[in-house]
Design brief:
By secondary structure, the chain is mostly helical. The longest helix is centred in the middle third of the chain and has 25 residues, at about 190-210. Helix 18 (about 365-380) packs antiparallel against helix 19 (about 385-395). It has helices spanning about 5-10, 25-35, 40-55, 70-90, 105-125, 130-140, 165-185, 190-210, 215-225, 230-245, 245-260, 265-275, 280-295, 300-310, 315-330, 335-345, 350-360, 365-380, 385-395, 400-415, 415-430, 435-445; strands at about 95-100, 155. It is elongated, with a radius of gyration of 31 Å. Helix content is about 70%, strand content about 0%.
Length: about 450
């Protein structure tokens, strides 16, 4: 997005295609330089529009009513200085920095003073030390799309945005060090030694930072140490414990995330999902409903709320939620599968088959969709088609004892006791002691 401006900066220094000292005599030449950047400018404009529309469609762009312009400007001013300090002294780094509703007026004023002072110093030295204005404007300019004036996401700053802007700061720093050496007669080995020592410290700090990225638990525990009120870190730490099967810890952490930020959609969704897994469907439904209320396009909330309602036996409300999930994201196979499952439960096997067919078109290796399609075909009396889908479900998921059981029952019902016995025996190897499997295996052996 900022490429045309960066190219103009390069024209100024080091290419020196125009100079500030006699700028008024170079207006035609300057216009030529601007005109040659127009193709890049059009491409940057088009990329900006596409990115903005895509982010807004995904719900990532915050409205001006949610985050007023005054708050955005305050955050941007403070963010510039935070980026500057974290580049020069990488302390308290975090994968996520929560957006702060109100920065202290004193901090905003001091940050603005720092920015204005450095800018004035660079402008005043633009003729004698052009690298200063080059590096500073590179830093300020390339950060503009990510500084929060157009707020995307809920972070106040993000370290990843500094990869390109930091180039300007390092240009300013390196050329300044070279001039210090010339001005004060510092010997090159001394400066080289200082640079090597700095790089060594950076290496040690990098190794320390990398250790936090070992796993989700360690990363987001560190994020909470950096900012104890980080509601996003609480949420993702809860996710990490949930992935480890530690539901109780996950529940406590996700509850804290929601307490700190009741309208944080991901937090409400994850808390609802954990409650659903724990069988606390009423509480889960409340959290998922809140997530839907805060973001009407949050398709996963519709999907999981449908599961909660289905568990409670509310077929029609569950059906409505799954239909909405399919409408919002028609290319999501799980949404079609869940809608098909509730249609099957509602004794609508023909409609269910349509949804299972679509789920398999989107994901041909969806074993559960084959299994439920087979059950729907059995309900319609289509034994041959049912056997085909049961066989495919077992082929795709050979370690699933439920698939073996259902396939065996279908084979037994089709008077194929030998093949049925083979499925029941395989199922018992996967789930020893299963009384249903033992009973049906005995039945299949008796038929033989």
């Amino acid at each position: 997005v900022t490429l045309p401006g960066v190219l103009l900066l390069l024209d100024f220094w080091p290419l020196q295609r125009f100079q500030i000292s006699n700028l008024k005599f170079q207006i035609p030449n300057l216009w030529r330089l601007v005109l040659e950047k127009l193709p890049f400018l059009f491409l940057a404009f088009a990329a900006s529009i596409v990115t903005f529309l895509a982010q807004r469609a995904g719900g990532a762009v915050s409205s001006i009513t949610v985050i007023p312009l005054s708050m955005r400007i305050s955050n941007a001013v403070v963010a510039y200085v935070r980026y500057l300090l974290k580049t020069l002294w990488p302390l308290n780094l975090s994968p996520f920095y929560p957006y702060q509703a109100h920065w202290p007026l004193t901090l905003v004023f001091l940050s603005a003073t720092v920015l204005i002072t450095v800018t004035v110093a660079c402008v005043m030295n633009a003729r004698r030390r052009p690298y200063m204005i080059f590096g500073w404007l590179w830093f300020l300019g390339t950060l503009v799309p990510a500084i929060g004036l157009v707020q995307v996401g809920s972070q106040s700053i993000a370290d990843r945005y500094m990869y390109i802007p930091s180039i300007g700061l390092f240009v300013l720093l390196v050329w300044s060090m070279a001039e210090v050496r010339r001005s004060f007669g510092v010997r090159l080995p001394v400066l080289a030694g200082a640079g090597s020592a700095t790089l060594l410290v950076c290496l040690i700090l990098t190794e320390t930072q990398l250790s936090y990225w070992h796993d989700g638990v360690k990363l987001f525990q560190h994020a909470l140490e950096v900012a104890p009120g980080n509601y996003v870190a609480y949420n993702y730490l809860g996710n990490a414990y949930d992935d480890l099967g530690e539901k109780d810890k996950a529940l406590v952490l996700c509850s804290e995330s929601v307490r700190l930020s009741p309208h944080y959609v991901e937090g409400q969704y994850n808390l609802g999902t954990i409650l659903l897994d724990l069988g606390r469907t009423e509480e889960a439904a409340r959290c998922l409903s809140q997530a839907m209320e805060d973001d009407s396009g949050f398709v996963r909330a519709y999907n999981n709320l449908g599961k909660a309602l289905l568990t409670q036996g509310q077929l029609q409300p569950a059906l409505d939620r799954f239909r909405e999930a399919v409408r919002l994201k028609p290319d999501w196979p799980e949404a079609h599968y869940n809608l098909g499952t509730v249609l099957l439960t509602a004794s609508k096997p023909a409609e269910a088959i349509t949804q299972f067919s679509e789920a398999l078109r989107l994901n041909p290796r969806y074993a559960e969709a084959h299994m439920n399609w087979a059950i729907a075909e059995s309900n319609l009396g289509n034994t041959t088609q049912a056997l085909e889908h049961f066989a495919e479900a077992v082929r795709l998921s050979p370690q699933n004892p439920e698939a073996r059981l259902n396939f065996g029952l279908a084979l037994l019902g089709s008077n194929k006791p030998r093949e049925a016995a083979s499925q029941f025996a395989s199922g018992l190897q996967l789930r020893p002691g299963d009384t249903r499997m033992q009973s049906h295996l005995a039945e299949a052996l008796a038929h033989q």
